[in-house]
Amino acid sequence: MRIVEGGGLGRDLHVELGGPGGRRAALTAALREAVRSGRLAPGTTLPPYRSLAADLGLARNTVAEAYAELVAEGWLTARQGSGTRVADRAAPPPAAEPAPAPAARPAYDLRQGQPHTGSFPRSAWLAAARRALTAAPNDAFGPGDPRGRRELREALAGYLARARGVRTSPERIVVCSGFAGGLRLLAGLPQVRRGRPMAVEEYGLAHHRAILDLAGLRTVPVAVDARGADTAALPGTRARSVLLTPAHQFPTGGPLHPARRAAAVEWARHVDGLVVEDDYDGEFRFDRQPVGALQGLDPERVVYVGSASKSLTPALRMGWMALPAHLVEPVVEAKGVREQTLSALDQLTLAEFVESGGYDRHLRGMRQRYRRRRDQLAAALAARVPHVEVAGVAAGLHAVLRLPPGTEAAVLAAAGRAGLALDPLSAFRHPSAAGAAPDGVVVGYAAPPDHAFTATLDVLCRALARATR
């Protein structure tokens, strides 16, 4: 067998020579099969026979005779000045198995978790990318540092201190592939595991609990109320680590009460433990003063994790951790000696976007957009279904609608019949949480396109009115 990848005029051709017969017969059969199978599509130009002969180590006449035989059979065509090509009349390849039809998208979508993708700042991002690429040092095009590009870590250290009250330095920041990527890294650390369960809020993303479960970390729920997680209950969990959303409890809304913030940090100090802070949408506050990061109370006991998923786009898969000093090296070792998940060029672009003020300008614009959306949602519900309570809307990109007891399933069914996708509140509750679960739905109001938002709210209100009468 002889395999060649190469050819004249920059054209690559993969040929396998083998089987019975001479070299010419083997080459003829290999080319015929490549055309018959569709690997060489109609119109494909073959390498000049001299180049192919040199690549295969064959006599020129051998390749020329193979080409001539395939031209005579109708598999190839040869014209003076245009080379040898696969004939248009060559038999097409067998029909492939039909691909499974993609799942139908709902006509109206109010599921949580997505920003307004149409508002991604394309022009400003492209300008930042050009500046970053022009200024990029040569080492940016080599293997990536598992800590992340220094330029981005410096930009994040300044931004997080200024905007979120995080106390850190570039040396203590590690860039990761979104919050989920950071959580996977932390869940595998002996300093986090310690043979104990991990406490989590009673309400949260099942995906995050699944990451911990796959890492062998059993999760224990902590009750959530209007003041956030009941951190006074942490000593009774036997855990030495806890996952919290202090700025805006997900999904029920509301910041963690100051006394409970202090209790979480004091508990971590007492048990030599760790708080993992998920600051998923802390930049988007509307009716209250900004709530600073819990990490600012004790940078040695709190891991701050943020990402660009809500602030820019989940397509970037960009997140960051501000780590206690003793966890920096273990996290870097867990990532490996090279950055394998994040583009250095995207990191440089984000650094430039932050340093140039583009990130702040984008966030200010999105706060105004999302506040208008929030107000439009609240007004529509107050006017048409006033018996439905709206909660958790002082910040963030979603609202919780508290429903009359026993109506959650009916609301979801009515919405489904109208082509509206909603998240049930019960889907976010820990399976081991105590007590009866209240009825509700979580409404993500950020993602629908502008031209469809009013119609989407109309469908939502009609579904609520039908199911909760």
Overview of this structure, please?
The chain is an alpha/beta fold and 469 residues long. It has 14 helices and 19 strands. It has helices at 23-37, 49-56, 60-73, 122-135, 150-164, 178-187, 190-193, 206-214, 258-270, 325-335, 344-355, 358-384, 408-417, 450-467, and strands spanning 2-6, 13-17, 76-79, 83-86, 108-109, 173-176, 198-201, 219-222, 224-225, 228-229, 241-244, 274-278, 302-307, 319-322, 389-391, 398-402, 420-421, 423-424, 440-444. It has a 7-stranded mixed beta sheet with strand order 6-14-13-12-11-7-8, sandwiched between helices. A 4-stranded antiparallel beta sheet has the order 15-16-19-18, covered by helices on one side. A two-stranded antiparallel sheet has the order 1-2. Strand 7 (198-201), helix 8 and strand 8 form a beta-alpha-beta unit. The relative contact order is 0.12.
What shape does the CA trace take?
globular
As a whole number of angstroms, the C-alpha radius of gyration is 30 Å
* Uncertain regions spanning at least 5 consecutive residues: 6-10
Question: N- to C-terminal separation?
Answer: 76 Å
Percent of residues in β-strands: 15-25%
Helical content class: 25-40%
How many helices? 14
The total beta strand count reads 19
Strand arrangement in the largest pleated sheet: 6-14-13-12-11-7-8
Output mean pLDDT: 91
Helix/strand class: alpha/beta
Which sheet architecture does the biggest sheet show? 7 strands, mixed
